[in-house]
Design brief:
This protein has one domain: Winged helix-like DNA-binding domain superfamily/Winged helix DNA-binding domain (Arc Repressor Mutant, subunit A). It contains 4 helices and 5 strands. It has helices at residues 2-14, 35-42, 46-54, 72-83, and strands at residues 17-18, 25-26, 32-33, 61-64, 67-71. The strands form 2 sheets. Strands 3-5-4 form a 3-stranded antiparallel β-sheet.
């Protein structure tokens, strides 16, 4: 699990959005992704993501009754806190 979190953190830190008017990176924008993408990044099944949400172990944003979005940084922080993983 630690290796997965480290690689996901590295991917998240290397990705940034660019501001369309200036072309400069915008760092305070959250990276919101769907359940399938989150499951792929964490190497778990979408069912595991559902279980974590149901147990309130990871944060999510409910957009519609069947659509949830996940802030990658917030989810990673919750997983690090739960499993007490320190990423250097």
């Amino acid at each position: 699990m630690k290796a997965i979190i480290q690689s996901t953190t590295h991917q998240t830190m290397n990705s940034s959005y660019s501001n369309s008017t200036t072309g400069s990176p915008v760092s305070n924008q959250p990276v919101l992704i769907k359940k399938k993408e989150l499951a792929k990044r964490l190497s778990v099944s979408p069912h595991t993501i559902d279980a974590w949400v149901q147990r309130r172990e990871i944060p999510c944003i409910k957009v519609k009754p069947r659509l949830y979005l996940y802030d990658v940084d917030a989810v990673m922080a919750a997983i690090r806190k739960k499993y007490r993983i320190d990423v250097a």
